[in-house]
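If your schedule permits, I should be very grateful for your opinion on a structural question. The matter concerns a single protein, recorded as an amino acid sequence and a row of backbone structure tokens. Could you please explain, in whatever detail you think fit, how the structure tokens follow from the sequence? I set the record out below, with my sincere thanks for your time.

——
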Amino acid sequence: MTPRPRPTPARRLGSGLVALLVLTVVAVVNRPVVAFGSEALHTFSINRQSYKEQFGHWSRLPVPAGFQVNAIHAALLSTGKVLIIAGSGNNRENFEAGTFRTVLYDPAADAFSEVPTPTDVFCAGHTFLPNGNLLIAGGTKSYEVLEGDIANAAGVMKLKNESATTGPRFFAKGTRLTSRSGFEYETRADVTVPAATQMVHDGIGMQHAGEAEVWVDAVLPGNAPVVEQPGQYAIEGLTGADRNNLYGVSDKITREKQEYGGDDTSYEFDPVAERYVRTGDMVKSRWYPTLAELPDGDVLAVSGLDEFGRILPGDNERYDRSARRWVDAPELKRYFPTYPALHLMADDRLFYSGSNSGYGSDTEGRTPGLWNLEDNSFEVVPGLAQPRLTETSSSVLLAPAQEQKVMLFGGGEVGESPVSTTRTAIADLDTNNPVYLPGPDLPQPARYLSTVLLPDDTVFTTGGSSGYRGGPYRGRPRSDLFNSQIYRPEADTFATAAESTVGRNYHSEAILLPDGRVITLGSDPLYDETGKNPGAFEKRIEVYSPPYLFRGERPVITGGPTRIERGTTVTFTTGSTDVTRARLMRPSAVTHVVDVDQRSVAVGIEPVEGGLAISVPGEKGLLPSGWYMLFLVDSAGVPSEGRWVQVA
């Protein structure tokens, strides 16, 4: 047999190229099949019982089209329903049309309903009151206007009244003022200027002009009416002494960007009647404020932008819940960036973790510390690594609250920066001279990370993005994070959890439900998936079931009181014999990943005939008055469903 000649190198190369071409064609033609097979395998894997027991499970919540809203705020009410607040939903067209929305979701009935929304509570502040009502204050009075969209110069005009005898003076919208150079400006709104006040100081009579501020716009477009220096303006139509006593002053009138303007409206949302109930107006208009409950049940409103888009310089105020009115709190003057995270501690101080949502100075008011509301002193808590990267971070009072440890997660550089961090840090505030110490790093740099306390004392973390509002990060057009993890305090480590299927960044929320699941909503990306076009608000809702829901039978609470008092012992009945701990968990009220309400408080347990004797802590700062979910937890970390109780 004659040996077959060996192919030449050129022939071998040609044959290889043909084979490669054939394989490429086969792969391309079958790519949908391969992708389908891979997806089917993934679906099979994440639905296995063993997978759920280790990582938990995500499911998509079907939302009827009529109830799909831009979830800017969310809160769990004492009725078990989730309050989803959009207001105008960061949509100028909705704002100008007066279309403001609020939706209720009932997990027990799996049903949605609409709630009439009286004003634009978009970017208001909120916290729960002892009676279970959700106090909602501030919101949006005007939308931002970008520099490129401003044709007519505009600015804030302060109208002054030097007369103490002629009373307040009213000026209608459209009133004109004239500069010394002859340019005219019109007021955007009606305004009333109070009369001057007379007083005696050290035996000397003094008079202070009445003042009121209003936006004005140049009558002529373009740069000619722009004023960069402070000046005085004459009010059109005045005669006689009024021409000297009434006038306007302004620092500048420009074509610069105009920020969102805050509102001064305030409501209590009644969870039983399911409606907004108007209270007295706030002392200051506020956009992006934090509302922090105080040990006595009143509320402190901190920070925010005023009606002209200016950061409030430490002017805080208190809500008197018995009178349903706001009062100035000059004794508590302290400056913070917008939406500062303020956690109520057992000693009645507020801990500012450093977490915030950005507007304000890039240096002032960003240092973490303990704020004493008795004397307005502030104890700095040092040690935080990367201290400039706290904007869009999140923080939580770790469970049980008795340990007085606050953990901070991720965050980014000030402003619209692409810089973010994997850093976590923990401050033990139950020590003398507390400091932040490093915690375990997050798997990826994260802004807007949602953090949810679970009944087993762990913290579920999900969502977020590495880039600003899910935008570009290290060469990628989008940077949403789909990984979730569970922080385990006893081991100081993160355990991997099942991945979500929906990206969540700016304007997203996550809340513990009474059945032990976690609902996740919202997201407001800057760009679409290509990174080239504007993003669309995420209206899909997902629910996460933690691993403990797949580990056998759950303890059951069969009876007990619905109202308990601090410092007492009460009995709850249960048929479960394996109960090792119990927790009172305050429901969440979250926006911009700031949630100063959620906390988990340990209660003492003692077996008694037919159930458990529950010993309730006595400190108001540890256990503020209000509605809580009582969870019983067994030796495997499996919790009961939460039972609502009111703590007084």
